[in-house]
Amino acid sequence: MKALKNQLYFFIFLLTTNVVVAQDTINTESAPSDTLLTEPSTLVVFESDTLFTLTESLGPFSPYERASAITLRLEKLAGNLLVVHADSFNITEENETVLINYSNTPLMS
């Protein structure tokens, strides 16, 4: 069980590292630096571990709302660790947005 949880942490780390780097690159090229932090930043925390920071709204959702939704989805996924299949994770890119899904359930964008 602990090995599955560690694998989930590692997988989330790999996914978020690429997304955060991609977001930083896109943001610094397309917007002036003084407009990047218009919303207060919010941490995405999973089981007492900080995974990453959200600094921007996405559509009508504030960074806090996004972080809360991501945390709830990860907790739900972690509750089903015995049935998680690594090959069910997928990453798709649509209209300058990267979507991370498990099966057909979006985890984050």
Q: What's the quaternary structure here?
A: single chain
Please give the alpha-carbon distance between the first and last residues: 28 Å
- Individual helix count: 2
Write the H/E string, N to C: HEEHEEE
Describe the protein.
The protein is α+β, with helices and mostly antiparallel strands. It has helices spanning 2-30, 63-79; strands at residues 42-46, 49-54, 89-94, 97-102, 105-108. The strands form 2 sheets. The protein has a 3-stranded antiparallel beta sheet with strand order 3-4-5. Strands 1-2 form a two-stranded antiparallel ribbon. It starts with a helix and ends with a strand. The model is unreliable at 18-37 (pLDDT under 50).
What topology emerges from the helices and strands here?
Elements: H1 2-30, E1 42-46, E2 49-54, H2 63-79, E3 89-94, E4 97-102, E5 105-108
Antiparallel strand pairs: 1-2, 3-4, 4-5
Condensed summary:
With 109 residues, this protein is α+β, with helices and mostly antiparallel strands. Helix content is 42%, strand content 25%. The strands form 2 sheets. A 3-stranded antiparallel sheet has the order 3-4-5. Strands 1-2 form a two-stranded antiparallel ribbon.
